[in-house]
Amino acid sequence: MQKEQYVICVGSGGVDNYFTLSHWPKLGVQIVARPIGKYVGGLVSNACNVLAGYGAHTYLMGMVDTTPDGQFVLDTLKAGGVDMAYYRQDKNYTACVCNIYLVDGERTIFVGIPEEHERFSFTPEQIEGLCGAAYIYTTLDQIEGIENGYEVIAKAKACGATVCVDMESYQPDEIHQKYLPLCDIIFVNDHDFEVLSGGKDELIYCKTLLENGAKLVVITKGSKGGSVYSKDMLFDYPAFPVKAIDTTGAGDTFNASFVYGLLQGMCLKKAAVFAAAAAARAVTQLGPQGGVTDVATVQDFMQSYGQQ
Fold first, then answer.
1. Burial 248-264, CB ≥16 within 10 A → b, else e
2. Cα separation, 31 vs 23, whole angstroms
3. Using CA atoms, how far apart are residues 164 and 133, in angstroms rounded to an integer?
4. What is the pLDDT of residues 92-143, one digit of tens each?
């Protein structure tokens, strides 16, 4: 009997409060900000929701507080089909709350990070789940914040899990340098690639990452599409031109959709095009979960652009 293929996303959800502005004000000027909604946010939870929307068995493994906002996160993710069996509520934990201001489709994000979080360790049950996962999706900040994070992710990788990491939070410090070799698939946008590479040539640095253990390096480049590097091939994939309403969560949608493609056995090029289409469709929707939809919707979007 074939073992179930599931994904575990390691990270904690937060709350995004959305506002619209007529224009971005100068410093010291008062302006009316009109509230337009509250959404579940967070890099990892957004990606997790996208995967669950496609029907992939996806767990979110993390922590949230016991406040109404925390319950909102929990209830919303459950309703979206995310398996919350490994998720914990703790009164000593403070969820991240972001205020997002939209002006003509572009957004400015104010991230409210608590001064101190209640740190936790992976439990024996969570470790067993991680070691049985086909894919683990997370960020370096999330893993670094877990007391036994490095050891457990290394163990899960040794058990056969493919570790996928969004490098948006990458900093060129000693801690992140230590965690970098854990990454099988590196997702990074072009801006953060400059931080990751220290300004080195893209091709040369990606080859270095692959020589040091990465299986794939996937670079997103906005309206220019992006590039995928593996030990056997290098290719660029196109973007899908759309009028953006809200770009929040586009990267999370791309990454999750790429992982879904791999989970379904797509070749790298097909997975990249599917992910690019999903991300492009996502920015035409409002909210960080604009990418949450079913596979058929993304395929219809691709076909409207002449892609299969």
1. bbbbbbbbbbbbbbbbe
2. 9
3. 12
4. 887 788 899 988 878 888 987 776 656 789 999 999 999 999 999 999 988 9
The 58-61 sheet, strands edge to edge: 58-61, 7-10, 135-139, 162-166, 185-189, 216-220, 226-230, 234-237
Neighbour-count burial of 30, counting CB atoms closer than 10 A to its CB (0-12 exposed, 13-18 middle, 19+ buried): exposed
CA 219 to chain centre: 13
Cα 149 from Cα 48, distance rounded (Å): 19
- Encode pLDDT of 35-48 as tens digits: 988 988 888 999 99
> CA-CA distance, 308 to 302, in Å (whole number)?
6
Q: What single DSSP character describes residue 148?
A: T
Looking at the predicted structure, is the pLDDT value of residue 177 above 90?
Answer: no
Which residue's structure tokens are 């253990």? Answer: 213
The structure tokens listed for 224 are: 């220019």
pTM: 0.93
Cα Rg of the chain, angstroms: 19
3-state secondary structure at position 165: strand
Rounded-to-integer distance, Cα 197 and Cα 229, Å: 14
| Token pair for 74 | 């929990």
Question: In the structure encoding, which two tokens stand for residue 14, read together?
Answer: 């937060």
Structure tokens at 110: 């104010």
* Secondary structure class of 105 (helix, strand, coil): coil
Residue 168: predicted pLDDT:
86
> Which pair of tokens denotes residue 306?
């002449």
Both tokens assigned to 263: 């989970």
198 to 168, 248, 261, 275: CA distances (angstroms): 14, 26, 30, 27
d(CA 13, CA 40) in angstroms, rounded, equals 7
Enter the tokens of residue 206: 């990606």
For residue 15, the one-letter residue type is: V
- Maximum Cα–Cα distance across the chain: 65
